[in-house]
Amino acid sequence: MAAVTADQKTQSTSGTAKATGTVAGTAGDPADAARLAAFDAAVAADDRIEPRDWMPEAYRATLVRQMAQHAHSEIIGMQPEANWITRAPSLRRKAILMAKVQDEAGHGLYLYSAAETLGTSREELLDKLHAGRQRYSSIFNYPTLTWADVGAIGWLVDGAAITNQVPLCRCSYGPYARAMVRICKEESFHQRQGYELLLALSRGTEAQHAMAQDAVDRWWWPSLMMFGPPDDASSHSEQSMAWKIKRHSNDELRQRFVDICVPQAEALGLTLPDPDIRWNEERGQHDFGAIDWTEFQEVLKGNGPCNEQRITQRRKAHEEGAWVRDAAAAYAAKHTTPPVQQTQHAQQAPHVEETA
Amino acid sequence: MSAALALGDDALVLSHRLGEWAGHAPVLEEDVALANIALDLLGQARVLLSLVGDEDELAYLREERAFRNLQLVEQPNGDFAHTIARQLYFSVYQHLLYERLAVGGGEFADLAAKAVKEVAYHRDHAEQWVLRLGDGTAESHQRMQAGLEALWRFTGEMFQPVEGLDDTGSGLDRQELERTWLAAVTGTVERATLTLPTGPRAGAWAAGAGRQGLHTEPFGRMLAEMQHLHRSHPGASW
């Protein structure tokens, strides 16, 4: 599940990612100016930037922040769904759900690896997550209260994630774009599975139908918030668009998502909890109601229903696993002869020093 | 059909226990690995239970006393070493059993031939971790040893004959199975600088009890959680 969501892209407080410094920081050095020109030309030509290519520090920092937050969202996102693995009501659904949660762990692995190509280790990023210095998608600070929530997450949260992520397959940074291609394929499975789960409930008993409607009522608005604040309040968007890390504005993607969901809800036999949704002939799009951004800001500040619970469980798993990781490292040290090419590899590692 | 239930319930129950690790594993790679093993086992369980009847009726509507799984697989996860000890004991047994059933030509030959490939990975995963934990740090050594000891008493049951399996020309020789299992497990445990517990095993009171529907206290709670939602909506489909 777990999109990189626009609320991450636009709300981080990481100072290094401030989108201004590209030119100012390099103005004095003609060699840097030339490298910057080459970088800008590559981005403009839709070429991919690769790990060993020169890149502005602000570009690197923006990517690390976004990829880390995306990776963190994958692993925090395992929690609300894993909450239902032991209670899944049929063996078929249990298998689907376990496979999905496993996929999320796998996505976390791809993304932490992709972030490593920028010289930032998984350990470092996890430490920042655990210390509350990096974010994950706010959507996972809502609880999964019934089985239908598993379906609503698949349909709406993964649906919003895909809407956000598909353009990232064309992101200017190669390793991220390639990871996203694979992730998007799996996410679209998850989205269909969620839809199908809700369909079974909606067409099931009265109690099952009510469970599905209740879940959609609770997840609809938070899903819309996944696209981040309205364009006029989005701080990092402009530079990310210029760098082709981001391709569409928050509001564009949100509108696209609403237009996809309205007919799907109808087919599901469920109602979206917004009386203002209606087709606008003139715009060729759906109008929809105003989003409660106060709630969004509160959840972002840590006051959502599950912020504390999610990060506490994550820290606990990490701390309780420390002796296992230590054992694996000790065993490897005892039983592996250090490879001769170690130094050479270190030299090839992309720009490790520069990101410190 | 009690043999399909015995094999199917082993897989179903262990899969459930491993599923409890999701999001709690010590390292992301293990979230993936444990879920993968759980999924393999769930796949086996679904095939085996379907030989007997409706898989969901069997999983969700039987009472505790009607389950035929080994007591070993229902034991709570404990710490990671505890889970790995359970994995070692069970996966070596299941690997050897399926290898034998696959060539035995009996009712389960096809299923065993398919499953033996994935179970070989489960066994390798468990053995590799026993080595790392046993020969890792002082703490991991102590925890791994504690896990091996806590679960040892539940291993005797694996070598009791199963009705409908051992008596139907499957070619199984439980004594040979036990000797081979013991040699394999001993080899891994010793390489890991650990010691296999001594003392009663096959003769422990637990031997044979799970197969007769007598389980341990944690199992009832596990089933309560697993069956609750399904049982709350009688007749519903999901």
Structural summary, described in words:
The complex is a heterodimer of chains A (about 350) and B (about 240). With about 350 residues, chain A is an all-alpha fold. Chain A has one domain (about 40-290): Up-down Bundle (Ferritin), CATH 1.20.1260.10. Chain A has helices at about 5-10, 20-25, 30-45, 55-80, 90-115, 120-130, 150-165, 175-200, 205-225, 235-240, 250-270, 295-305, 305-320, 320-335, 340-350; strands at about 280, 285. Chain A has a two-stranded antiparallel ribbon with strand order 1-2. In chain A, α7 packs antiparallel against α8 and α7 (about 150-165) packs antiparallel against α11 (about 250-270). Chain B contains nine helices and no strands. Chain B is globular. In chain B, α1 (about 1-20) packs antiparallel against α2. Chain B has one domain (about 5-230): Ferritin, core subunit, four-helix bundle (Ferritin), CATH 1.20.1260. Chain A: This is Phenylacetate-CoA oxygenase subunit PaaA. Chain A: One of its GO terms (molecular function) is phenylacetyl-CoA 1,2-epoxidase activity. Chain A: It holds the Pfam family PaaA_PaaC. Chain A: One of its GO terms (cellular component) is cytosol.
Tell me the layout of helices and strands:
The complex is a heterodimer of chains A (356) and B (238).
Chain A: H1 6-11, H2 21-24, H3 30-44, H4 57-82, H5 91-116, H6 122-130, H7 148-165, H8 174-202, H9 206-225, H10 237-242, H11 250-268, E1 278-280, E2 285-287, H12 293-303, H13 307-320, H14 322-335, H15 342-348
Antiparallel strand pairs in A: 1-2
Helix pairs in contact in A: 4-5, 5-8, 7-8, 7-9, 7-11, 8-9
Chain B: H1 2-19, H2 28-52, H3 55-61, H4 71-74, H5 80-104, H6 109-134, H7 138-152, H8 174-191, H9 217-232
Helix pairs in contact in B: 1-2, 2-6, 5-6, 5-7, 5-8, 6-7
